[in-house]
Amino acid sequence: MIRVLIVDDQTIVRAGFAALLNAQSDISVVGEAGDGREAVRIAASACPDVVVMDIRMPGMDGIEATRRILARPGADSLRVLVLTTFDVDEYVYAALAAGASGFLLKDATADDLVGAVRIVARGDALLAPQVTGRLIREFTRQHRSRPRPPAELASLTARETEVLVLMAGGLSNAEIAARLVVSEHTVKTHVARVFTKLGLRDRAQAVMLAYESGLVVPGGDQPA
């Protein structure tokens, strides 16, 4: 059973999400919060697996709430799914930096929401193509000069580096396996090793690191 905390300042939105998610046989809504501060408090007691988090709320916003929730002890397996709209591009990068595992556009369908919760609950990242494009543009805006790669990247094998680059390109494990002509199980092993060596929580953080280190260049190929 996937335990979900819903965070949104609109009561009717929370109620709709709760009704939809509770109707699923494998999902249970264990709490609702109307702002970031309340979300931090409830997350500590309700122990959700996934937090569905709105970004813009009065008081503490979703970015700060995400940062605080994921910073508490025992939150290693907790995932945050951020709700965003077309007019909050500037927040997408900050939410990823705070530790969010995925993004869902607010005009998504009911099936999209249910699927997104399941995806992040199993440890995968959810980055819609529209959101990934905004992430890259925001990264480019904030980082004018080419950054220096972190020393940890030197610990990766050539194949692990290749897998990291493909993850940053938005490819799933199955797509990476097809590209490299290996089994999906082999890809999962490489992904797990990349996460362990680089101290990453999930694919969302892998995307962040790949761009921040210069391993992947927005609008270009892997740098030499």
What would your notes on this structure say?
Helices cover 50% and strands 12% of the residues. It has ten helices and five strands. The chain has a five-stranded parallel sheet, sandwiched between helices. Helix 8 packs across helix 9. The protein is globular and about 50 Å long. The N and C termini lie far apart (45 Å). InterPro entries: CheY-like_superfamily, NreC/VraR/RcsB-like_REC, Sig_transdc_resp-reg_C-effctor, Sig_transdc_resp-reg_receiver, Tscrpt_reg_LuxR_C, WalR-like.
Topology of helices and strands:
Blueprint: E1 2-7, H1 11-22, E2 27-33, H2 36-46, E3 50-54, H3 62-71, E4 79-84, H4 89-98, E5 102-105, H5 110-121, H6 129-142, H7 158-168, H8 173-180, H9 184-198, H10 203-212
Parallel strand pairs: 1-2, 1-3, 3-4, 4-5
What tags apply to this protein structure?
224 residues; WalR-like; NreC/VraR/RcsB-like_REC; CheY-like_superfamily; Response regulator transcription factor; globular; 10 helices; Arc Repressor Mutant, subunit A; transcription; 50% helix; five-stranded parallel β-sheet; 5 strands; Rossmann fold; alpha/beta
Q: What's the count of strands?
A: 5
CATH topology of the largest domain: Rossmann fold
The tally of structural domains comes to 2
Please, what is the CATH homologous superfamily of the largest domain?
Response regulator
In short:
Residues 149-214 form the HTH luxR-type domain. The protein has 224 residues and is α/β, with parallel strands linked by helices. Helix content is 50%, strand content 12%.
